[in-house]
Fold:
Amino acid sequence: MASSVFTGSIWKKFRATVVNDIWPEVLFFTMVAVMVTLVSSLTETSLAISSQMLTVLGTVLGLVISFRTSTAYERFSEGRKLWTNISIASRNLAQIIWLHVPFDRVDKATGNKKPMLEVMIEKKSMINLIQAFSVAVKHSLRGEGGVYYADLYPLISFLPRFSHPRKCTEEEVLPLWGASGMDLKKHHTIRSMTLNSKETTLNRFASEPTPQTDEEMGELRNEKWFDSFRRSDKKRFDPESALPVVPSEHPLMPSRNPPKTSFFSCFPFLRILKPLIRPFKRMTEDEPPLRRSLTGKKIRPQMADSNVPIEITLFLSTYFASLMRQGLLTPASATAMVNAISGLQDTVTNLERIKSTPLPFAYQAHLRMSLWLYLFFLPFQIFGAFQWLTIPATAFASFLLLGFLEIGQEIENPFNYDLNDLDLDHFCLAVQRELHEITAHTAPDVNEFIFTEWNQPFAPGDRRSAKEMLHDLNHPYHDDDECVHSIRKTLLKSWREVDQITRKH
Structure:
């Protein structure tokens, strides 16, 4: 078991390198060096040429490749910073909704106090939308359009789907669901089944292994995702099991669907044999294949056309407008909420800029052709000095220069499933944990926890609790004339003790 884990770790680290992508080119230039060495050493014909251009071209290419790698890393670093901005804005927006929007409200229509349960449901639902925003950005950057994903759909399934609640036609479908290909017939079936059922979907599936509507529900569920609720005894990493369980018009795609690495991914030049072995291989549709060009380079997915993140921010802005109409936000809280929503919109726009603005093709093509020509003529120029060492020298130079060039291309778009890309799934789960931690806060009255025996505010100068100090009416703290002076004296004593204790002699 341990050996298999160790082997898997080694294989994973190997896949994170660019050896898999550059070894055909390295092999080609090495064979050129072998040809030059054999012809020059075993025949009377010498293929050696002057090496005067070697230093000049090598220096220029080194600088250009260094610039190429630096610009790619800047995009990688900027992408990480923008995801940090999403985390910060999500956290701030959730805190404003959970803490600054009042719990005690009066329904203006009836004049009665609004039930606390309704307020809590309202707040938690909007915070779920904040969580859905980062997930939607992740799928959009990976070229995965729509909303039918196991980690996204449960968070936004309650959003309105038609411009008018009574007009459920194709012309009335809102852009969020229209871009996702919602099936109207299935939608009507699901709505009626959900609203008329007395049991929740989770309980119905848990109690009925083969329900009467098994054929319909098979189309509505992603079986792999729902299986976690049927087999709760199995301990495995399944973050989607913490999300709501709601019916869907389409089978939910997995939250993470990386391209499949096959034998032809490591040996791209053998892809010409693929049609010959295809009839003898069972094709699987669970994972998309790792697409490569004719030269074996990875083909990056394009940006998704659907604007799910923008649609989510529109609903957040609608909620903000509703709070303002009801007068539930102070000016400071309203400004902070607007800034947080604007920060989410600005961040997703900048992420789209990084995704959709690659390095110009002319620059990439010219740099690669220049490097190929340099490596092709390299053994001709160094044979006179290296002789048989020309072969390993050319192989090493090819590996070094092509590796740096490929690294720049690898990290230029850091939003996909490559091992060198940013771990967007980890970022989204971190946002989810933070938002749930915020909603776990009870927002108590400060008097309930400050003036207790557990609080020693003036330690180490005065190690009495706040409750003891309040009950000691004879202490100078309670003297109107000496109160401030006595407290400052205690705080000064605390500073001296802390300064002495925390310094190393």
